[in-house]
Design a protein that fits this description.
With 246 residues, the chain is mainly alpha-helical. The protein has a two-stranded antiparallel ribbon. It has one domain. The protein is built from eight helices and two strands; from the N terminus they run αααααββααα. The longest helix is centred in the last third of the chain and has 28 residues.
Length: 246
C-alpha cells in the first residue's frame, strides 16, 4: 500500500509537469529547461518519508496487546526478528523505492523527449567553446554532486531512529519519533557547527566566503559520525526489542 501511495504521489508531480508543458505550448513558450527540476528534491524528500514510514510502523503492533500476541507467537528469536526488520526496512524498502521512482521517471521523460527538443546549447563568450545540456535526461543518468555522497547515511540513520521509535513507544510511534527527530536534528546541527569551527580553527578560508580550506574533511567527519550514531541506535533498538514487554 505504501508503494502504491508513493507511486501516486510521484506520478502526480510528473503529471503536473505535463500540464505545465502543454500550458506553455499554448502560449507559445519554447524554453522548458526547468520543467523537471523538481525531480531531485522529490527523490530525496519522498525517499526519506517512505523509509521512515516503513521503519516507524514495522514493530507498531507491539504497542497493542491483541496484535502483539501474534507477534510474540512467531517462532523466531529476537535477533532474527530484528534482522528481518532491517532487511525489509532497509534494502528491500530502498530498492523498491528506487525502482518505482525510476520506472515512473522513465515513462514520463520518454513522453517528453518524444514531443520536444531536450538539449540546450550555448557558446562561451570567453573561449568560444560550445556547451550542451540535456534538460530532460533520465534521472538515472543525472550527475550527482560529489558532496551529496557524504550524506548517503541519512536513510540508514532515519531507519534506525524510526525503528527504535516503533519498538519503544506504545502508541503514535511515528508522530512521537518525528518530534524527537526534530529535536535530534537541531542538536546534531549545533554539534556539527561547533565541530566545524574547532576543526577549521587557524585554517585559511578560500575565495571570499567563510568556506573552510578543506571542506571535504568536514563532510567526512559528518559522514563518519552519522554512521557511528546509526550503529549505536540500531544496537539500542535491538536491546529494546529484547526487553520489550507487552
Amino acid at each position: 500500500m505504501s508503494l502504491g501511495i508513493l507511486a501516486g504521489v510521484v506520478a502526480a508531480f510528473y503529471g503536473y509537469a505535463v500540464k505545465e508543458y502543454y500550458q506553455g505550448l499554448s502560449i507559445g513558450a519554447s524554453d522548458f529547461s526547468d520543467l523537471l527540476d523538481f525531480r531531485f528534491p522529490l527523490f530525496v524528500i519522498s525517499g526519506l518519508i517512505f523509509g521512515t514510514i516503513i521503519s516507524g510502523t514495522y514493530f507498531s503492533d507491539l504497542g497493542q496487546k491483541p496484535k502483539a500476541i501474534f507477534e510474540l507467537l512467531i517462532p523466531a528469536s529476537r535477533i532474527e526478528k530484528f534482522l528481518t526488520a532491517l532487511f525489509y526496512s532497509v534494502p528491500v524498502a530502498i530498492v523498491s523505492f528506487i525502482l518505482v521512482f525510476l520506472v515512473i521517471d522513465y515513462g514520463f521523460v520518454t513522453y517528453f523527449r518524444d514531443r520536444g527538443h531536450s538539449v540546450t546549447s550555448w557558446i562561451s563568450e570567453a573561449t568560444g567553446e560550445e556547451f550542451k545540456r540535456d534538460n530532460w535526461a533520465y534521472f538515472c543518468k543525472m550527475e550527482i554532486n560529489e558532496k551529496m555522497k557524504y550524506f548517503y547515511f541519512l536513510p540508514l540513520l532515519f531507519n534506525a531512529l524510526f525503528l527504535l521509535g516503533s519498538i519503544g513507544f506504545r502508541n503514535f510511534q511515528y508522530v512521537k519519533t518525528a518530534i524527537l527527530l526534530v529535536i535530534y536534528v537541531a542538536f546534531w546541527f549545533f554539534c556539527v557547527v561547533y565541530l566545524a569551527k574547532f576543526l577549521t580553527a587557524g585554517t585559511i578560508s578560500v575565495k571570499y566566503g567563510n568556506y573552510p580550506a578543506d571542506e571535504f574533511t568536514i563532510l567526512k567527519y559528518v559522514c563518519l559520525s552519522g554512521i557511528v550514531v546509526t550503529l549505536l541506535v540500531w544496537g539500542i533498538g535491538f536491546l529494546k526489542l529484547k526487553e520489550k514487554e507487552v
